[in-house]
Amino acid sequence: VRSMTLASRPTGQPTAQNFALTETAMPEPAEGEVLVRVIWLSLDPYMRGRMDDAKSYAPPVEIGGIMEGGAVGEVIASRHAGFSEGDIALGAFGWTSHAALPGDALRKVDPAIAPIQTALGVLGMPGITAWVGVNRIIGIQQGETALISAATGAVGTLAGQLAQIKGARAIGVAGGEEKCAYATSELGYAACLDHKALDAAGLKEALAAAAPGGVDGYFENVGGKTLEAALSGMNDHGRIALCGMIAWYSGRGLDEAMSLPAAWRAILVKRLKVEGFIIFDHMHLYPEFLAEVAPMVKDGRIRYRESIAEGLEAAPDAFISMLEGGNFGKQLVRVGDD
Ligand code: NDP
C-alpha cells in the first residue's frame, strides 16, 4: 500500500517537502469493513486547512498521518453485506492506493450514470456544494443576476450552470483568458472577468459594465479583491453564499484585503444577507441533488471539465498548483487503473 502522508506543516504555501510517500502492508478488512483499491483521488481546497494545526470545523491531519481525501475505488474484498467484489465505492480513503473502511461509511457509485470520477466532482461533494449554494443559500430566481467566483472550478462550473437553469444571468470571475473564454463559450456565462488581468478597481469597473443592473446573488469562493468587487456590485437585499475564500487560505493577500469596517458597512447599507455554509450539514440532500443533476450530466445539458494528475506521487504538486489556479475544472489524481 502506497500512501502520501503529511511530513510537516506548511507555513504559508505548502511545498513538496510537506509530503512524504510511505509503503505499508495491505490491510485486512475487519468484520463490517470493505477493502478498496483506489482509482481516483479528489484534490480539494479544504485539504489546505487540514494541514494546519488550527481549530476548524474538522480536526487536522496528524504529522505522519495519511492526507485526508475523498476517493473512488474498486472493492477487492468485502466483509459488509452491502458491498461485493467489483463494486465501485466512494469514501474518505485518503491519499492512498488501498484502504479498508467500514462499509457503512461508504457509498456505492453507479458506473451507468456517468464516469465514476464524477462522484468526486460534478456529481459529488463539489457538485452538491454548488447546488445547495445556488438553490438553498442564495435562492437564485428567474431574471436575477448571479456572480460566481472560481467560475470554471469544480464548484463554480456547476454553480454557474445551475443559476442559468433557474433563469438567472450568470457572470463569472476566473483567472486567465483561457478560463474566461471557456466560461463564456462552453459554460454559458454572459460575461467572465479575468481577475489576473485586473486590479481591484478594474474588477469593480468590469463588473459594473457586465452587470449594469447589479448583482442579486454572489457565490463566494475566493475572497480577496473579487469579494471587494462583488460587494461594490451587489444590489440592495442581495444574497451572498459564503462557500470559500481560497485567496486567503495560505495566509496570502491578507495585507491587501479590504478593511473589515468597509466590508461590514457594505453589508449594512445594502441590507445584504450573507450566509456561510459547510456542505457536511447538507449531505442528507444528496439523493435529491443526484436525482436532479445526474440526468443533466448524463445527457450533456451540464458540462464539466477535469484536470488529471497521474499517480499518487504527482498529488502534492497538483494540489499546490490547484491552490493557485493551476487546475482547469475538477482536480483529480489517477491512483490506479480504471
Ligand atoms: P476549484 O476547482 O475552484 O479550484 C480552486 C480555484 O480557486 C483555482 O482554480 C483558482 O481559479 C481559484 N483561485 C485560487 N486563488 C485565487 C485568488 N487569489 N483569487 C481568485 N481565485 C483564486 O476548487 P473547488 O471548486 O473545489 O472549491 C472552490 C471553493 O469552494 C474553495 O474556496 C473551496 O474551499 C470551497 N468549498 C467549500 C465547501 C463548503 O462546504 N463550504 C465545499 C467545497 C468547496 P482561477 O484560476 O479561476 O483563479
Automatic annotation (TrEMBL):
Residue span of region Disordered: 1-16
Top EC class, one word: oxidoreductase
Keywords: Oxidoreductase
Annotated InterPro entries: ADH-like_C, ADH_N_2, ER, GroES-like_sf, MDR_fam, NAD(P)-bd_dom_sf
Domain of life: Bacteria
Keyword Coiled coil assigned: no
GO molecular function, one term: alcohol dehydrogenase (NAD+) activity
Enzyme Commission number: 1.1.1.1
Ranges for domain Enoyl reductase (ER): 15-333
Descriptive protein name: Alcohol dehydrogenase
